[in-house]
């Protein structure tokens, strides 16, 4: 089923128009020794029916677990309207809006998205997305270094409480350009503000709010401390939490300089990890360092308002080697979904989700810690995730919980050797009291 | 069109979705009200103040100004907005280098299965055998198609695949302490992501010219390579829509100089089932699944850019990948692959796009893949032949087109003062998305045209008719062409104003 | 637009979906070829000639001329066709009597759950407890809303609900050997389905006039009732958008004459949570779930028309219904309900529509239902007030509007020669679907306008602006209004030609 | 969540414009004794999230059975594109196309549908759908009686091998108008052609192909026999089977007069029984007796082709008590889906489905009858359903099979008292060899 519409007659007529005898002749510029149609590991074609059954059997495997895992991907409710709209062919099967006049739908969505993200982060500018939160943090760091390199050298400080995957991705992305990353140490799960000293000059400081353990960082103090030392502040944030948490633009006395994070909590299914999208916002002064697309409002020949991609001179297709990034394809469709999601929820709806999550996680933690040997690892305040110490290795417990239909969280031993018995748990607004009880009972069983 | 914010200015107070809503909402509440609303907003239905215990200083003071509108207002607004777009589902979209082919709905259905959509990315392997098996199968298929030894699916677009590949080249040289290699060569016509990637990986870029036939200028290449050469990035077929016939020689020259060969897979559609980059001497490559593998472009993404490597670069592939041991699939991480350039994403890349590509591959099968190569090439050559007969100039009239080809409209530009951009905008009025314009840069007044295999002969004939009509119009009434488009939601937009006055977010009051 | 058949004329030979297809298809095959193709087309992959053993005389000789096109051609064709429609998702659609309100996407999602969609209708009750439980819950909710004792969900639209209800009336009289009752009374303004239903049930129809205030003329009713009266069918609010204030008296008159009262629930939206037909004296009724319960109209269906009955008519409800016994749900059939008028559909009606209505009811809850009644009435009265102030004539200026109201444009028709139909067509150019025109028939140049509760004040204000603009235009340039619409895919269509030349199917060759 | 957009301020302003004090005043024409806002059995409102979970729990109950049941509803593969397109808001949320200029999408779909159904049935005219196959057969009978009443009286003959539900529905629908139905008896599961005698005059004869038991009727002989006696012939057919079976328009020497049936096999999910749609086709001479919508092609003011509803004088909204039927709302969306489905499959694809079904059912029957005590009840030729006798009560066996995840068919005892041990089985093109083996093993277990 190769989705090709030609009849044999049409193909014949086309070959005649070209003036060749057969299909093979179309490939006569490929040296014969390079011709190969061997595709042994590609199976014979399946009908859509057979393919869907094959895929459904695989999708079914291990599905339907009650989800208490977070760590960067969250089981939120997504209103049905979000994807009913986002997956309309007009959004889903268009390309990047290079021909502005034929892409006003997408361009206006991006403009609305930029406006919403600016509001949520209290930053002046937002781009039209980067790949995901982790790679976006890498872009943010490169941006900061470009903006601040002469003053502060190519070193960047990342809080130890930043998601370990993100820290690794940042190191990989910026390392090739000679940018160094160093760690701002944590104490009891969060940046130790009391111990903030006088480091060597750095270009930027990265802090995550809520942090990897779900704890709240003292972002005002850290921001002011960094600014006093001439470093830019990069805020890695959960956009859903910003409905109730102080936005990066208001951190400290001047606000963070760049805000970024993963947009998954804004209407994107967990989907086994992706696609999600990274958002990236900044102060207006930094806009020319911004990677990725930007949509701007302008006027047409008749003076009618419309939208177009703008400041393209930052981008690879214009500036090539001098571009702010190599990014080209981004995560447009997810941005569309997130825009619709935010429009549906509004500020109050989003706050409701945030508070629902926090309530549920508190109820969960309260219930789990009533089980003998189960304790929170760090003190409050956590937001909607919490590290919990178990009397057994967390990975083993997780595997056992799966047999009860429960995804009990994320085992932290792989990231922090001293946390082999620690589980990071999360209960979103979707979890009911009954769900929490199911988890607790299962855990009691496993630990008994 | 009115923005959702303008609708909200009067329609607000009726947020569509409130997880716990039962009764009439108030207006966008101040945060303290929000807190109160949170009291019974949780799924548990149990009371509790969501903000209790959080330091006052960390709480938001005023709620963000998001739209507060009803569900109908949202549905109507975005339904009507979507109608302003051209798309594959609605239009012929022969955008060169972008492979805008049909995106099968079955593949979308497969990736949307609840078992995939609702899966947490950190689910233990024991509960993910089906999902991991899918990724493993895709790795195998892509290895076979490209002739590579290893494939990592994690890059989230072509450009990130390039980043991974060039970082692997660097890792390779570094591992051999070959640290003097500071340059990446790219053909002058290369896609912008190639030089940009090289720079992101800390390399200097050196361009290599093409000869008049559109192949790489071998003498120029010889002059450019040397001990500083880390590698050469190129596509084949090239961005000019030509198969690089001297690829064997090029590979030898670069390899002899100690450099590596990077294959930009954006143009793989042309040679699917016909030839393999691995056989051509490439060491590392990326694929654009959103192009060759028909996963929808989504108005600008998401994509997926798996990176493949031959034996030599195998140890450096990014993690995670999927391994198969004793009949069980598992994630391979840096513990398994200590030489890996490491992670590139928070989890494991754009799983949904990978699943779509797998579904597409399964439906095509090996025979279908060969037909893709054949018919994408047939369509491009047919369209080229017809346009030529209709009086248009091919940029490389003596060459065979691949899956795409370049037209140069400089004759028209000189004769009538009607540029390629004017032709492009006028095509929109004919209901056709414009081809890629002004790329590759070296071809003046360029149209890069890629019809893809899923378009019918009828559609191609209509395109020729439209071009012919615009050609005539350019002679008779060039102003009409220069003023296009006329039938779209807006006429030609002022890009200079957009850049100069930077209006990037909605503001209350008149927005112009 | 080009039809799919015209596309197939040139594009054929590439059928999109072939359950077992792997390679290139030929053209639309002759039947013998079809047989061959069948050889390995089954899911089993096992060979076999599907036609073996079937008598030659029962086999089709030539295949039907269905389109043979590619999947992309299908997707593009129907995507573009859809764009030619006005719809709730895209437009204000104040079609009186039709309750074109927002159709929540969540309800659509609920009904689309695989567990409902993939369920065979004859699945044993033991494996259908969840599904049956949903229907039972809906029966209970609808009984409560209407004040009825029993509810059967099986009718597939309002008209079939009417059929069921009137058949029940007949069954009731028959059971009492009261066979002289041969007439059904309907108000003159009744919806066409009311008299048509009465006739389908073997009754004669007798119309009862309204008085000048729009209520039923009680004297006329008294004159009409008698020993021949089987029953009276009416809606309340009436098709004139008025609440029938004398409903208590009317019920008494009909009941005293031995007749029964049928309630046409098409207008229930106005009184949801405000009043119940059961309390008004109605014996039997139907609901239009596709109206009051926001299940999408689907360009003409499907709908669902559950029928409810009070104690008296309970035994006659159509089967199947869902019963609850000892905590288990089960289908009730004629074995359980020997007096039933029986089955009306192959299985049990439009389950998917019922599930949507249930989902909607659950989201609204009792408080939401009351708000529906309030705000649908608020919107109609507001729009009526504003239009009146803008100089339009209400058909019943002294009455309170319910969820809808009637305008009469006869003054404009006389003064400017611009009819209600002209206004309607011109409204389309303003991006608004026209209200119901020329119904009810007794109001000259009538617009029946039903905004519904899900439309915003803004949308209503825009409607007033549009009407005002057309009103002005009618005075200044009536031809312009009479020539409308101008901005739609076609201008005004020749209906006389359509009926006279009856062109009902595609034919090869030019189709005009 | 009542989906109402008004702010309290707006509601207040609107009340002022109307000139009333409060909402209550809007209902002042309802007599007080009739006012009631009691809704005790209506639960309090749920969020979309809670509702979806509630519904999903119920949908999950008893789901996922391997389906071998048919009897009027069939588990066919539906290409993903069908409903992706049909459920676009433009189709799904429009009303009946009364305003033709604003409904060209729907009207053209109907025109294409009519064309396809006419092709499939080889009849000249098709309407735009009736509710379902059973009620549609009722309409067909009324149509035939209207067309033929004077000649033949109000009696109609229905073959005993017509779906029992359909026979009941027809009797209910036509009975109120005094039309009588009588049964044309069967022998060995099909109309006994040899025994066709000289009945009292009838208006019409109804025959189903393939019939309820999946057997093929001798339609040519029955058609000619009926026509010779002045009766109209109503063909009740499975539209999918028409891809390979002789279409009603070619039955006998003159063809059937009316063809109808259920459209479910054409892209409509089983969906617990509905919505599906009924199709209704006829000879051109009968078009004015046709109930329901018809779309016709015409020209606009500028001479451009377009579509509109036509012959509306047959319909209730124009003709009221004299209409051909009371039908108003029909099954438009399903017609849209079926049109797209037929366009995707084409004649060859539909034939492939038909033959796949028959092959699979033959394989199934061949496998099941290898089990001791399992036998086919009737002789070939069956099409894609088959009645199978078991050594135990069929209903008991069915219930037991469910425990094995198999929906084993439809028990016939409820319809035919002598078939208490008989199961009607069907294997569509979706069933694989492995599925058939699963069924057979389960049945072996149940019967052991
Ligand atoms: C030749 C070529 N290389 C690389 C890319 C970059 O791929 P992506 O947009 O997926 O990052 C493109 C995409 O336009 C391309 O055409
Ligand atoms: C007042 C009234 N009664 C009955 C009906 C018939 O309902 P349906 O179209 O669902 O058969 C309608 C529908 O338009 C109506 O408005």
Let me know the average pLDDT of chain B. 92
With strands numbered from the N-terminus, the spatial order across the biggest sheet of chain B is 1-7-6-5-4-2-3
**Unreliable parts of chain A:** none
Helix content of chain A: 25-40%
Binned, the helix content of chain B reads 25-40%
Biggest sheet statistics of chain B = 7 strands, mixed
Strand content of chain A: 5-15%
What Rg of chain A is obtained from the alpha carbons, in whole angstroms? 25 Å
Helix-strand category of chain A: alpha/beta
Low-pLDDT stretches of chain B are 18-48
Strand fraction of chain B: 5-15%
User: How far is the first residue's CA from the last residue's CA of chain A?
Assistant: 54 Å
Strand order of the largest sheet of chain A: 2-10-9-8-7-3-4
**Number of helical segments of chain A?**
12
Quaternary: heterotetramer
Protein described:
The complex is a heterotetramer, with 2 copies of chain A (448 residues) and 2 copies of chain B (512 residues). Chain A is of the alpha/beta class and 448 residues long. In chain A, 36% of the residues lie in helices and 14% in strands. Chain A has helices at 8-18, 48-60, 80-86, 89-92, 104-121, 133-152, 164-175, 219-228, 316-319, 332-368, 394-403, 433-447; strands at 66-67, 125-126, 155-159, 180-184, 186-187, 190-191, 204-209, 232-237, 258-262, 278-282, 295-299, 305-309, 375-376, 386-389, 406-407, 410-411, 422-425. In chain A, the strands form 5 sheets. A 7-stranded mixed β-sheet of chain A has the order 2-10-9-8-7-3-4, with helices on both faces. Chain A has a 4-stranded antiparallel β-sheet with strand order 13-14-17-16. Chain A has a two-stranded parallel ribbon with strand order 1-15. In chain A, helix 7 links the parallel strand 3 and strand 4. In chain A, helix 3 packs antiparallel against helix 10. The mean pLDDT of chain A is 96. Chain B has 512 residues and is of the alpha/beta class. Chain B is built from 18 helices and 13 strands. In chain B, strand 4 (229-234), helix 10 and strand 5 (260-265) form a beta-alpha-beta unit. Chain B is globular and about 70 Å long. Chain B starts with a helix and ends in an 11-residue tail after the last helix. Classes of the chains: A alpha/beta (448), B alpha/beta (512). Chains in contact: A-B, A-C, A-D, B-C, B-D, C-D. At the A-B interface, helix 1, helix 2, helix 3, helix 4 and helix 5 of A face helix 2, helix 3, helix 4, helix 5 and helix 6 of B. The complex binds pyridoxal-5'-phosphate (PLP) (2 copies). Residues 97-98, 157-159, 191, 193, 235, 239, 264, 266, 288, 303, 305 of chain B line the site of one pyridoxal-5'-phosphate. One pyridoxal-5'-phosphate is lined by residues 97-98, 157-159, 191, 193, 235, 239, 264, 266, 288, 303, 305 of chain B.
């Amino acid at each position: 089923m190769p989705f090709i519409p030609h009849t044999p007659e049409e193909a014949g007529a086309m070959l005649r128009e070209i003036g060749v005898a057969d299909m093979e002749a179309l490939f006569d510029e490929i040296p014969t020794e390079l011709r190969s149609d061997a595709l042994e590991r590609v199976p014979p074609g399946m009908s859509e029916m057979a393919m869907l059954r094959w895929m459904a059997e695989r999708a079914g495997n291990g599905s339907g677990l009650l989800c208490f895992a977070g760590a960067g991907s969250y089981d939120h409710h997504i209103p049905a309207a979000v994807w009913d709209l986002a997956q309309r062919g007009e959004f889903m099967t268009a390309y990047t809006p290079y021909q502005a006049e034929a892409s006003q739908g997408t361009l206006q969505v991006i403009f609305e998205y930029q406006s919403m993200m600016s509001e949520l982060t209290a930053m002046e500018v937002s781009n039209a997305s980067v790949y995901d939160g982790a790679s976006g943090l890498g872009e943010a760091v490169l941006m900061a270094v470009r903006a601040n390199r002469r003053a502060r050298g190519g070193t960047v400080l990342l809080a130890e409480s930043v998601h370990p995957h993100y820290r690794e991705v940042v190191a990989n992305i910026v390392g090739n350009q000679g940018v160094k990353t160093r760690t701002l140490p944590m104490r009891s799960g969060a940046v130790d503000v009391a111990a903030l000293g006088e480091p060597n000059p750095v270009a930027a400081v990265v802090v995550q709010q809520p942090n990897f353990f779900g704890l709240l960082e003292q972002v005002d103090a850290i921001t002011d401390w960094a600014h006093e030392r001439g470093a830019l502040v990069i805020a890695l944030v959960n956009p859903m939490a910003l409905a109730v948490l102080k936005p990066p633009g208001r951190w400290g006395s001047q606000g963070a300089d760049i805000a970024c994070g993963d947009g998954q909590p804004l209407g994107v299914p967990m989907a086994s990890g992706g696609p999600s999208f990274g958002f990236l916002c900044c102060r207006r002064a930094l806009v020319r360092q911004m990677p990725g697309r930007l949509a701007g409002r302008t006027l047409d020949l008749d003076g009618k308002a419309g939208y177009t991609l703008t400041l393209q001179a930052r981008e690879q297709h214009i500036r090539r080697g001098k571009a702010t990034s190599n990014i080209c394809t981004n995560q447009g469709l997810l941005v569309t979904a997130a825009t619709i999601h935010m429009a549906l929820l509004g500020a109050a709806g989003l706050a409701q989700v945030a508070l629902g999550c926090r309530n549920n996680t508190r109820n969960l933690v309260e219930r789990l810690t009533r089980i003998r040997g189960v304790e929170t690892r760090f003190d409050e305040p956590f937001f909607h995730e919490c590290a919990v110490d178990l009397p057994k290795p967390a990975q083993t417990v997780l595997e056992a919980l799966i047999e009860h239909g429960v995804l009990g969280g994320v085992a932290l031993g792989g990231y922090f050797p001293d946390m082999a018995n620690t589980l990071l748990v999360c209960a979103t607004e979707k979890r009911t009291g009954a769900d929490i009880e199911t988890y607790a009972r299962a855990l009691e069983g496993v630990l008994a | 069109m009115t923005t959702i914010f303008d609708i909200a200015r009067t329609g607000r107070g009726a947020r569509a979705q409130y997880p716990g809503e039962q009764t009439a909402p108030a207006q966008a509440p101040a945060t303290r009200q929000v807190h109160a609303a949170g009291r019974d907003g949780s799924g548990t239905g149990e009371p509790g103040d969501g903000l209790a215990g959080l330091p006052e200083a960390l709480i938001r003071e005023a709620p963000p100004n998001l739209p507060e509108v009803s569900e109908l207002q949202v549905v109507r607004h975005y339904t009507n907005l979507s109608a302003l777009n051209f798309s594959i589902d609605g239009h012929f979209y022969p955008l060169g280098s972008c492979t805008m082919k049909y995106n099968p709905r079955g593949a979308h259905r497969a990736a949307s299965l609840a078992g995939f959509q609702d899966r947490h990315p950190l689910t233990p392997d024991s509960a993910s055998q089906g999902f991991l098996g899918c990724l493993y199968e895709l790795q195998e298929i892509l290895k076979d198609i490209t002739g590579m030894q290893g494939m990592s699916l994690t890059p989230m677009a072509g450009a990130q695949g390039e980043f991974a590949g060039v970082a692997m080249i660097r890792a390779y040289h570094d591992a051999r302490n070959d640290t003097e290699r500071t340059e990446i060569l790219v053909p002058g016509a290369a896609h912008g992501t190639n030089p940009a990637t090289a720079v992101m990986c800390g390399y200097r870029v050196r361009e290599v010219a093409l000869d008049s036939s559109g192949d790489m200028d071998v003498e120029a290449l010889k002059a450019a390579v040397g001990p500083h050469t880390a590698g050469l990035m190129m596509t084949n077929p090239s961005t000019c829509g030509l198969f690089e016939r001297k690829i064997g020689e090029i590979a030898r020259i670069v390899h002899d100089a100690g450099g590596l060969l990077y294959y930009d897979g954006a143009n793989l559609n042309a040679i699917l089932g016909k030839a393999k980059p691995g056989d051509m001497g490439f060491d590392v490559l990326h694929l654009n699944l959103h192009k060759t593998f028909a996963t929808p472009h989504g108005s600008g993404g998401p994509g997926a850019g798996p990176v493949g490597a031959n034996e030599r670069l195998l140890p450096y592939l990014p993690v995670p990948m999927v391994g198969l041991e004793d009949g069980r699939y598992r994630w391979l991480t840096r513990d398994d692959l200590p030489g890996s350039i490491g992670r590139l994403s928070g989890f494991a890349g754009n799983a949904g796009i990978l699943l779509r590509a797998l579904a597409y591959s399964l439906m095509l099968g090996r025979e279908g893949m060969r037909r893709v190569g054949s018919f994408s090439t047939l369509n491009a050559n047919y369209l080229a032949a017809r346009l030529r007969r209709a009086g248009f100039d091919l940029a490389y009239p003596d060459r065979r087109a691949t899956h795409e080809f370049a037209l140069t409209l400089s004759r028209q530009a000189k004769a009538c003062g009607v540029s390629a951009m004017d032709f492009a905008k006028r095509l929109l009025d004919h209901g056709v998305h414009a081809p890629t314009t002004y790329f590759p840069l070296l071809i003046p007044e360029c149209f890069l045209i890629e019809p893809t295999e899923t378009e019918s002969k009828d559609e191609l004939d209509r395109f020729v008719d439209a071009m012919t009509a615009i050609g005539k119009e350019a002679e008779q009434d060039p102003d009409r062409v220069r003023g296009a488009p006329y039938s779209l939601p807006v006429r030609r937009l002022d890009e200079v104003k957009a850049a100069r006055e930077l209006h990037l977010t909605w503001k209350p009051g008149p927005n112009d």
